[in-house]
Amino acid sequence: MLASYAQVRINAAYRGARMRKERLAYFRKCLLEKQRQLTEEVGRTAIYGKDQEDDSIKDLGDQANTAYNREFFFELGNGDRRLLRDVVSALQKMDDGGFGSCERCGEPIAEKRLEALPFARYCIDCQRLVEQEERMATG
């Protein structure tokens, strides 16, 4: 069952009030470090992908290899960009008082889960449901 936006905000406010300032500061530090790492990685991937755009390569095999490498680094960059978006979203939730609440059911996300994945969007039960729904959608 999906929680209404109002329920999520109420639970988020309650969760934010309960989470100690020290813990929030710790998670903010983790998220800011992850944001820095991902920003650097996205930049490196973009630069390396551009380095692969040598049109002077005449050999068909080399062209195929270059195209494969370009696609490979593009996909790596996409994953990093998605993670970066989740990290930025988690930082925004901290500012809004909603950090640590599941986006699906509105319940608190376990601190152990946040320790492992501070940008987690869902509690573990809802994460399983989301993954199951994604598997069913892709066949």
Task: Characterize the structure shown.
- This protein is mainly α and 139 residues long.
- The protein has a single domain, classed as Four Helix Bundle (Hemerythrin (Met), subunit A).
- 74% of the residues lie in helices and 0% in strands.
- Helix 2 runs antiparallel to helix 3.
Task: Identify the overall geometry.
Answer: flat
Q: Which regions are unreliable across 5 or more consecutive residues at pLDDT < 50? A: none
The CATH homologous superfamily name equals DksA, coiled-coil domain
Named at the architecture level, the CATH assignment is Up-down Bundle
Distance between the termini: 23 Å
Chain-wise SSE layout:
Layout: H1 5-18, H2 21-51, H3 60-96, H4 111-116, H5 124-138
Give a short synopsis of this structure:
The chain is an all-alpha fold. The chain has a single domain (5-138), classed as Four Helix Bundle (Hemerythrin (Met), subunit A). The chain is 74% helix and 0% strand.
Question: What keyword list fits this structure?
Answer:
74% helix; mainly alpha; 139 residues; 5 helices; Four Helix Bundle (Hemerythrin (Met), subunit A); flat
